[in-house]
Structure formats: structure tokens, C-alpha cells
């Protein structure tokens, strides 16, 4: 006799409540008090030898510039390459440009292991060294690895805890989604963002610690503590939303976004790195004469606790600090964020939702005021009474050198951010963005950083403080 088919709930309706309980525990968790994390990170930095030294481009070990294209490749054909790209866009102050771009046509794993202690979800983060981080060591996901790394192309030691994210039988998936990386610097790059819950008795390596979502939220108040990869994973967690409504229905918001994707005409054609216009190569850099945007540099790295303890690699180094800010207002008592449908040359689908302002101001200073990014001045002149959150966070430290952005939530009024915003902008609630973040390629990495701050309770957008 055939056993009856058993249907299961389509979604875990308790997960948001469990995450809320974890977000509420902010001062201490199972293993470590929040106030002690800074000291623990300092201890882990002293426990290993770390060194990053700039070197000449031609001194990169295992890398070569192809004689026919000038593209920069690893001798294995794995990891990533630096190529040129030619971009044409039908809108904007700059409609055609060429630049170097990182091409890495493989999907990495950004995985955080979760486990309940005393009925509260905790997340296993590691103190990970990345050569591009200004302070080198930051809190990262349990597993942060490219496909080349976790399949052993580097011939180093195995990635710790990888089995929890490659063997589905080891736990329960809480969230799992492909998300983009920086669309201005990566060509169509995606990573798997996953949180996996286990009931196993997990041995904890010295460079790892269990923290609640609330503890992580407290640490997000500080500069350069929680790395980009941890932030993007946390942004996809389905948190509780008590919003009674929104200016735009979920369908209206998605329809507007679809229209934005459809109306932009953008081509991004790969071209030889040696042929890109306005970029010149010297012994130590490939950059522009005007000093704008970024430059290609090379570093030699020593890291005692990495799978490989020494290597060299190219990095992109921005020429200024970025600004990524959401303006917010309240409508009907509900906080709304002003999102931007932003075109970036490396996106798979041309447009993703971005913060209201996302730019490096110095790159626009040479243009007349009407051609500079909308709302930039609103953010720059905002007084302390309007700035609800501000912190400097590193971008991807494995590919970018000293790449930092100042992340903000800034309260606005009708004169600064009207109910009917300019083309390319729309009001959306945090709950709406959280729903979209559980699907791939809706929110860009900068928007996901700010959403992570909301999910972890780092910032509150109440009408009164």
C-alpha cells in the first residue's frame, strides 16, 4: 500500500519571529559579550602574521598580461581576470565610457551558519583577513569563498565549515539567494548568499565566534567591523514587518522596477584592456590622468590564518570615499525609503535598486550642478538632527583596496524629497525592500548593506527618536 503524500507548509512562518528574538539580544550572547568583540578581534589579529605590500604590476606572481589583449589573467585560468569594457547608455551625464572590469564567471559562496542557543538564533562569524581592508581583519560570513578557492584551485588547506553549505543534509536552509556584487567594478558577478541552520554540536575554531543578530547590529554602528559579505547575507533574512500599508502596492513597485529595467538602453561590450581609452599603465598602476574613479594596483600578501598563507594579486583602488545614503520620510506613520533604479555597467539586468544617493562625490565635482547626482547635496548638508545613522564600511576587501563608503539614513521633508520624486526614484517601505531582497538581482550591494542595518536593529526610523 502506497504511503499517503504529506504536504508541508510552503514557508516557515516562525522564522521572522525567531530572527526578531535574536535581534533583540544586543549586549551579550551565548559565547561573547558585544563589548568584548573589539578585544577579541585585536587578539585574533595578534595571533597571526598579516602583511600587505604594494608591488609593481609586473611583479605579480602567477599573473600575466596577455600579449594580444593586455588583459590580466591568472596562470591557472581560474580565479578572475581584469579586462576592458566599452559602455554606451542612452541617459545620464556620461553616456559613453571605457574602463577596466573584473570578470569572474563563477559563483562563490557567502554562507553563515546559524544555531539556537537557549532558544535564540546565533550566527557563526569569522575574523577574516582581506588584503584590501584598511584594518585587514573584519567579521565575515562562516564561509566566504570563491568557487576556485573552495574547489582547491589555490592548493591550500580546505575551507572550514564548507560542508554545511555543500551538503544539504547537514542542516535547514533559512535563506538562499543569488545576489550581485558591485556593478561598477564586476562584470555580471553573482554570489550565493545563504544562511544554514544546524543542530550539530559545532566545534568552534579560534578565529570564529557565535553572535546574535542584535550583537551584529550593535557592531554595525562602528566603522569597518562587519564586512560587506556578512552584510549582504544578513540583508536577505526575512524579518518581521508591522507595516499596515505603503504608498505603492508590492505589485506597483515591481511593475515600476520592470519598467525601469525595460526603458534603459545599455550595451557593455568586453574589449581588450590594452585598448581602453583614457587609461594609462605605469609600473605600479593602471589609471586615468585626471585621477578619477579608481586605479588598478598590485599587492603581495602574507596571512597566517588563510587557506594559502602567501600570494600576490591585483586590486582596484578607488580614488575617494563613497557616499551611500537612503533619504526617508513617513507617510501615514509608516517609514518609506527613497530608492533609485540605478544603472551599472556590470549588472546582469542593467538596473538594480540602490540607495537614494550612491556615488563618490569627487568624481562628479568637475560637472555643473544640474549634472551631478540627485539629492547629493541634501545628504551632504544634513545636520545631526536629520542623520539617523552614519558609519563607514569597507567594500569587498578581496578585490578592492581601501574601498570605503559612508553609509547613512537621512530624514527628509517635502522640500528635500518630494512625494512625487524625479524619474528613476520611488518610495518603498523597509518591508517591501526586505521582501525583494529575498530574490536575486533586485537590490544592489549598497542597498543591501543599509537593509542589513535595519534587519539587525542598528537603526530605527521611528517618527520620533
UniProtKB/TrEMBL annotation:
Pfam families: Hexose_dehydrat. Residues 35-236, 252-454 form the dTDP-4-dehydro-6-deoxy-alpha-D-glucopyranose 2,3-dehydratase domain. Gene3D superfamilies: EvaA sugar 2,3-dehydratase subunit (3.90.79.40). One of its GO terms (molecular function) is lyase activity. This is NDP-hexose 2,3-dehydratase. It comes from Salinispora arenicola.
Amino acid at each position: 500500500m502506497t504511503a499517503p503524500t504529506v504536504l508541508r507548509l510552503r514557508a516557515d512562518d516562525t522564522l521572522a519571529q525567531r530572527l526578531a528574538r535574536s535581534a533583540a539580544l544586543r549586549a551579550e550572547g551565548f559565547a561573547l559579550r558585544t563589548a568584548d568583540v573589539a578585544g577579541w578581534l585585536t587578539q585574533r589579529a595578534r595571533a597571526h602574521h598579516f602583511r600587505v605590500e604594494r608591488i609593481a604590476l609586473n611583479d605579480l606572481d602567477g599573473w600575466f598580461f596577455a600579449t594580444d589583449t593586455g588583459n590580466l589573467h591568472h596562470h591557472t585560468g581560474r580565479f578572475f581576470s581584469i579586462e576592458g569594457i566599452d559602455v554606451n547608455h542612452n541617459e545620464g551625464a556620461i553616456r559613453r565610457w571605457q574602463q577596466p572590469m573584473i570578470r569572474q564567471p563563477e559563483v562563490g559562496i557567502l554562507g553563515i551558519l546559524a544555531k539556537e542557543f537557549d532558544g535564540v538564533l546565533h550566527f557563526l562569524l569569522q575574523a577574516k583577513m582581506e588584503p584590501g581592508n584598511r584594518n585587514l581583519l573584519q567579521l565575515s560570513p562562516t564561509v566566504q569563498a570563491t568557487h576556485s578557492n573552495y574547489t582547491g584551485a589555490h592548493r591550500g588547506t580546505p575551507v572550514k565549515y564548507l560542508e554545511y553549505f555543500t551538503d544539504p543534509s547537514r542542516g535547514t536552509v533559512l535563506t538562499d539567494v543569488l545576489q550581485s556584487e558591485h556593478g561598477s567594478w564586476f562584470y555580471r558577478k553573482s554570489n550565493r548568499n545563504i544562511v544554514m541552520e544546524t543542530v550539530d554540536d559545532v566545534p568552534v575554531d579560534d578565529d570564529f565566534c557565535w553572535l546574535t543578530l542584535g550583537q551584529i547590529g550593535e557592531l554595525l554602528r562602528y566603522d569597518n567591523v562587519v564586512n560587506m559579505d556578512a552584510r549582504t547575507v544578513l540583508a536577505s533574512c526575512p524579518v518581521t514587518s508591522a507595516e499596515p500599508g505603503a504608498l505603492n502596492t508590492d505589485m506597483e513597485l515591481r511593475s515600476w522596477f520592470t519598467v525601469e529595467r525595460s526603458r534603459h538602453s545599455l550595451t557593455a561590450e568586453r574589449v581588450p584592456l590594452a585598448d581602453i581609452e583614457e587609461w594609462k599603465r605605469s609600473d605600479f598602476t593602471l589609471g586615468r590622468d585626471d585621477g578619477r574613479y579608481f586605479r588598478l594596483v598590485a599587492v603581495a600578501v602574507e596571512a597566517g590564518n588563510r587557506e594559502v598563507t602567501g600570494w600576490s594579486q591585483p586590486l582596484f583602488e578607488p580614488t575617494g570615499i563613497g557616499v551611500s545614503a537612503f533619504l526617508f520620510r513617513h507617510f501615514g506613520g509608516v517609514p518609506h525609503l527613497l530608492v533609485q533604479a540605478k544603472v551599472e555597467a556590470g549588472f546582469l539586468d542593467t538596473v538594480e535598486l540602490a540607495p537614494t544617493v550612491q556615488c563618490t562625490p569627487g568624481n562628479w565635482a568637475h560637472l555643473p550642478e544640474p549634472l551631478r547626482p540627485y539629492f547629493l547635496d541634501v545628504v551632504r548638508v544634513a545636520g545631526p538632527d536629520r542623520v539617523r545613522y552614519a558609519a563607514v564600511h569597507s567594500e569587498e576587501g578581496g578585490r578592492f583596496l581601501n574601498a570605503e563608503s559612508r553609509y547613512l539614513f537621512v530624514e527628509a521633508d517635502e522640500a528635500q524629497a518630494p512625494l512625487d520624486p524625479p524619474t528613476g526614484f520611488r518610495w518603498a517601505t523597509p518591508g517591501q525592500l526586505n521582501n525583494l531582497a529575498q530574490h536575486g538581482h533586485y537590490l544592489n550591494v549598497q542597498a543591501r548593506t543599509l537593509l542589513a542595518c535595519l534587519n539587525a536593529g542598528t537603526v530605527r526610523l521611528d517618527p520620533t527618536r
